[in-house]
């Protein structure tokens, strides 16, 4: 899953795709490089980010989505109206970092459209989530949250086969909590739905390589984290540098198979 943030303030690519044309061009390039989906988002969820209005979110994403019609796109939103418009323009997945908690109408939109949905764990909200996150056991907490949200989604009429789960790396977690979640990712995989992870350029990885103050980690560090997550059962990776991830993950998968051909 390639990331196209049509935002001025995203932590890594904020402002890179200032025009819809630039965003669409980046999306097409990511698909050419081997992405299966392009994730278009119009509201930053980086730590400290303030929410934007629905009108502003629509103003950012709709023109880019129009230019990407016919291509595999997911919409990174927690609002029903944004999802509705994106689906009408061809989006096949709704990536909701609030796991259907922010907008009570979103589950119905996903259920009626029969599209895929990603349910992600977050403690708190982006504005405050990094102010001393606390858990008894981060893996237990995330697994039980995702299990509950999965049940809610199915009760709301979403086909279970269309649901992805995401531990929400960096969303209300310290660097050590993020690493512990990855170390025991099998616990999330054991819930029984495919697991998506977003590790790309996140600051936890910069910490690991000795850059405690960096906000953005390197693509090399990101690829290393993705391969470790793949080894523990993750099957979708939300990334900025698509080609590097496709190559590294192709090799990791070939090693697991023990042969070149799929
Ligand atoms: N991370 C971000 C945004 N959306 N969605 C899922 N499912 N998983 C993630 O880990 C995830 C996500 C944050 O990264 P980014 O989009 O690069 O930055 P920003 O939120 O500042 O736009």
In short:
The chain is an alpha/beta fold. It has ten helices and eight strands.
Layout of helices and strands:
Layout: E1 2-5, H1 20-32, E2 38-41, H2 54-67, E3 73-76, H3 80-88, E4 93-96, H4 106-113, E5 116-120, H5 138-155, E6 163-166, H6 175-183, H7 186-189, E7 196-197, H8 203-208, H9 219-231, E8 236-237, H10 242-257
Parallel strand pairs: 1-2, 2-3, 3-4, 4-5, 5-6, 7-8
Helix pairs in contact: 1-2, 2-3, 3-4, 9-10
Description:
- With 262 residues, the protein is an alpha/beta fold.
- The chain has a domain at 2-183: Dihydropteroate synthase-like (TIM Barrel), CATH 3.20.20.20.
- It is built from ten helices and eight strands.
- The strands form two sheets. The protein has a six-stranded parallel sheet, covered by helices on one side. A two-stranded parallel sheet has the order 7-8.
- Helix 1 (20-32) links the parallel strand 1 and strand 2 (38-41).
- Helix 2 packs parallel to helix 3.
- The longest helix is centred in the middle third of the chain and has 18 residues, at 138-155.
- It is globular.
- The two termini are 20 Å apart.
- The model has no long low-confidence stretch (mean pLDDT 96).
- The protein binds 6-hydroxymethylpterin-diphosphate.
- 6-hydroxymethylpterin-diphosphate (HH2) binds next to strand 1 and strand 5.
């Amino acid at each position: 899953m390639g990331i196209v943030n049509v935002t001025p303030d995203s932590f890594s690519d904020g402002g890179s795709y200032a025009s819809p044309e630039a965003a669409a061009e980046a999306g097409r390039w990511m698909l050419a490089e081997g992405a299966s989906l392009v994730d278009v988002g119009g509201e930053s969820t980086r730590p400290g980010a303030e929410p934007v209005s629905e009108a502003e979110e629509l103003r950012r994403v709709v023109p880019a989505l129009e230019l990407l019609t016919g291509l595999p796109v997911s919409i990174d939103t927690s609002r029903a109206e944004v999802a509705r418009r994106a689906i009408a323009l061809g989006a096949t997945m709704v990536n909701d970092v609030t796991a259907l908690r922010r907008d009570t109408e979103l589950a119905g939109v996903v259920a009626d459209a029969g599209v895929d949905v990603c349910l992600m764990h977050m403690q708190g909200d982006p504005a405050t989530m990094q102010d001393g996150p606390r858990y008894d056991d981060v893996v237990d907490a995330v697994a039980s949250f995702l299990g509950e949200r999965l049940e809610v989604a199915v009760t709301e009429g979403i086909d279970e086969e269309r649901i992805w789960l995401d531990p929400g790396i960096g969303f209300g977690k310290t660097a050590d909590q993020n690493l512990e979640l990855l170390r025991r990712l099998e616990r999330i995989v054991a819930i029984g739905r495919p697991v998506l992870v977003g590790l790309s350029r996140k600051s936890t990885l910069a910490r690991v390589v000795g850059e405690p103050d960096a906000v953005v980690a390197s693509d090399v560090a990101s690829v290393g984290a993705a391969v470790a997550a793949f080894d523990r059962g993750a099957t979708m990776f939300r990334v900025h540098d698509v080609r590097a991830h496709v190559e590294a993950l192709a090799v990791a998968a070939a090693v697991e198979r023990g042969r070149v051909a799929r």
